[in-house]
């Protein structure tokens, strides 16, 4: 029998189409894996490397529900009373394992807007086109959300992969780039804007990816109030 040393565990339930009712599970974390145990026998039911996690989904409607998206396309759903605490711990554990692209969303990754599998990254030309779309269309409220969703679905949470090439693009389009945080702040502060949580999240994730570039950060930080 193989013994697995765990440093954190949470009781919850797993939701799967294989069973009509939720199945009780103990979710456990090790330094490199997340595993499910049967609460009665304590035997390991599944074990997956943390490096294979693509995103964590914090359900916007059910306060106890969350999902784990894996790079192979599999999505596993759970409920637990300690959801937010578990998500925070899980996020730290995944990043500590070396997976810096993991992030928390309120909905599944829009696979229809992603050009490559979750385990792959887009090429330089595609990344450049996505960046141009954001810079040129952020001021258009009818296109902004769709463009940001497509950008966020394809660009890693840790930022642009081809930073040298994209830095030159950011430098050439600084004027348009300056408008991104300005418009974002206006939208958030405007009581009549009525932005949905999905739209706010798209803006946040888009800015996170842009800020990962040195040139993008340098361009955005001149915006008054940005540092706050």
Write a structural description:
- This is DnaJ homolog subfamily C member 13.
- The chain has 228 residues and is α+β, with helices and mostly antiparallel strands.
- It has two domains: 8-109, PH-domain like (Roll); 115-220.
- Helix content is 39%, strand content 20%.
- The chain has an eight-stranded mixed β-sheet, covered by helices on one side.
- A hairpin with a 4-residue loop joins β6 and β7.
- α2 runs antiparallel to α3 (141-154) and α4 (163-172) packs parallel to α7 (214-220).
- The longest helix is centred in the last third of the chain and has 16 residues, at 174-189.
- It is elongated.
- It starts with 7 loop residues before the first strand and ends in an 8-residue tail after the last helix.
Secondary-structure content class: alpha+beta
Mean pLDDT: 83
Total individual domains: 2
Query: Which percent bin holds the helix content?
Result: 25-40%
Q: What is the subunit arrangement here?
A: single chain
Q: Beta fraction of the residues?
A: 15-25%
Number of DSSP helical runs: 7
**Strand count, sense and closure of the main sheet?**
8 strands, mixed
């Amino acid at each position: 029998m193989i013994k697995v040393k765990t440093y954190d565990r949470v009781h919850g339930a797993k939701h799967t189409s294989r069973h009509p009712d939720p199945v009780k599970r103990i979710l456990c974390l090790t330094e490199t894996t997340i595993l499910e145990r049967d609460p009665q026998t304590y035997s390991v039911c599944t074990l997956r490397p943390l490096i294979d996690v693509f995103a964590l989904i914090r359900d916007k409607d059910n306060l106890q529900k969350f999902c784990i998206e894996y790079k192979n396309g599999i999505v596993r759903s759970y409920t637990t009373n300690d959801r937010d605490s578990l998500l925070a711990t899980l996020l730290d554990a995944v990043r500590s394992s070396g997976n810096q692209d993991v992030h928390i969303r309120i909905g599944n990754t829009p696979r229809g807007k992603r050009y490559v599998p979750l385990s792959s990254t887009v090429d330089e030309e595609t990344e450049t086109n996505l960046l141009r779309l954001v810079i040129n269309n952020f001021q258009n409220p009818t296109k902004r959300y769709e463009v940001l969703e497509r950008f966020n679905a394809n660009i890693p949470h840790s930022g642009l992969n081809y930073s040298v090439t994209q830095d030159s693009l950011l430098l050439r389009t600084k004027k348009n780039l300056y408008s991104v945080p300005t418009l974002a702040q206006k939208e958030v502060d405007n009581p009549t804007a009525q932005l949905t949580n999905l739209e706010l999240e798209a803006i946040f994730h888009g800015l996170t990816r842009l800020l990962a570039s040195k040139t993008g950060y340098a361009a955005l930080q001149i915006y008054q109030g940005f540092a706050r």
